[in-house]
Each structure stands twice: as C-alpha cells, then as structure tokens.
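Allow me, if you will, to draw on your knowledge of protein folds for a short while. The matter concerns a single protein, recorded as an amino acid sequence and a row of backbone structure tokens. Could you please explain, in whatever detail you think fit, how the structure tokens follow from the sequence? I remain grateful for any guidance, and I place the record below:

…
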Amino acid sequence: MPQTPMADRPLLKIEDVEIAFSSPDEADIVAVRQVDLALGPGKTLCLVGESGCGKSVTARAVLHLNDQNAVISRGRILFSPPGDETVDIAALKSDSLAMRKIRGNQIAMIFQEPMSSLSPVHTVGDQIDEMITLHEGLKPREARERTVSLLDQVGVPGPRERADSYPFQLSGGLRQRAMIAMALACKPALLIADEPTTALDVTTQAQILDLLKELQEDYGMAMLFITHDLGVVAEIADEVAVMYLGDVVEQGNVFDVFRAPRHPYTQALMRSIPTIARKKERQRLSPIKGTVPSAKDRPEGCAFTSRCPYAFEPCAGTKPDRAPLGNHVARCHLLTESARKNEVPA
C-alpha cells in the first residue's frame, strides 16, 4: 500500500469506530456505531448534536478517557503528529507508555466544568507545573516561569499571584482559562474541547471562544470541539459532524452543511435555532418532537427513525449508505438512488 505523504495526511483519522459499554447483567450497549471522521492540521472539527448522542464518548476515546467498561470494539483511531509516525490509538492500552506520551502532551483536552477537573487540594500553578515537568523535564523554577507565562497568555490577571490560588478561589471564567493554560503547557498538536463554554455566562463564553481561536492560530494546533450550540459551530468550525444516537448522520464543510442541510435531523436542529428574523416575524420555534432514545433501543437502520417525519419502510431495518452531497455527505435513505422519489424537502 502506498504511503500517504506527511503533508497530505490528516492529523487525526477515526475509521469505522464502534464503542461499546459492557455490563455484568446484560449484553454490551453500543454507544458509538461505525464513526468515520478526519481532522487536518490547524483545522477545527465540531461534533454537534443533542445530549446522549455520543459526542463526548467519541472524543474521550481518542485519549482513552472513557469509563473502564467502555471498549473500542471496532475500527482505528489514527494519530499522525507532525514529523512522526502514525500511531493507532485504538490499539494502545490506556496505561501504556505510548499512550502516556500522547495524553496531555501531543493531544490535550479541556472539559465543560474545570472545578470538577482541577484538583481542589493543589494550587493552579502546581498543577500546571506538574504537567510541564512530567512531559518536558524542566526544573521546578523553570516550570513555574513557564506556568506564569501561560497564565498571562490566556488572559489571567496577576498571573504570578493567581498561580498560588486554589481553583475554588477563582471565578468560573478564570478556572477555564487556567485549564486552557494547562492544556497548552506542552504545545499539543490537537486540542479536544468538550463543551468548554456551556457552564459560562454569555459574555465569558464569547471571550473564551475568541481566546481559543487566537491560541489555535498562535500554536497552529487542530481542535476537536464538542458542542450542542450551532451558533458556536458557525463561529469556529471548518468542518462539522452531526451525531445522533451514536451515528454520524451528516458531515462536511460547515458552510455547505449549514447552507443546505439534507439529513432530517440536521434540518430539525437548524429549525430549532432562534433567529432575529424569526423574532421579528413572531414565528414560533420548531422543537424536535420526542427525545433521544436509549442506546438499548436503537433501531438496526437509521438511528433517527423514531423521530423522523419522513421515515418509511427501509429506515428502521437497514442502515443507510453515505450519500455524497458536494462538499458534504449524509446518511439517509431519502437521499439514496433507490429512494430518490422521496427526496427530503430543502
């Protein structure tokens, strides 16, 4: 097989990945099913969808951060850091030396609520110092200077004094900035952000998003961004993947997906967004009826069948193939050649 030139290969490529949760009392529950994603160097890929759709499970699998009963039962997670060989993360053990080299060093992650992610019994500075000394072997004084510089870079006022603060002594916005500083301590090639602004007020949310975009440009890193907020997706994404009940139902260039969504779930998400035009015309929001079912109740076919207004006979029994749609694709029986007469309304 010919080798892909390093300049052309994706930084992260998820191929046909399935993630299942085991239980001693019942059969394994498949939470993520045959997911394919690719993220290029310096680009931003957003995973979007309702809660319970498998976004976080997919992202955390990249660093083996899911619960111990979660198993990558199928597929590959290929990570190709600049100037280095490609490694299949799915084949690594969570506690292996190779995985520890990647986690926090080449791939870093920030979470929704830093208060539950930062240690409450260590100062912010000590926690960032530890990350730097662990991966880069700097002496304590050198590590502290790097920490202060990082806190200053992410906009923490009085960074030297704040480094001696405990997480509970900082506001939510400052805690999130401190977690971003920790994530950037080793200049990762990939930053995974799991709903990092959801718990923040609107003003702080905008500041954190601006900060992430600025830091991404400065560091040249890629971002895998998990959110349920389509407004955030429109602001920061290059590519978007819409997930529903563990399946990627539509993905591609963010402009094309937003301009002409073709999967019924993506269309429903778009109709549920409040807009200035809708407010002016006094139009009601159009919520998606029903809720995301349990992974135990997923149909063999399209995961959205039970809530889809266009569902017909093949939907529940057969998983749809990808339908190419210019610069994006969607998995929907209504878009395949055999069902062209039932095409989804634009």
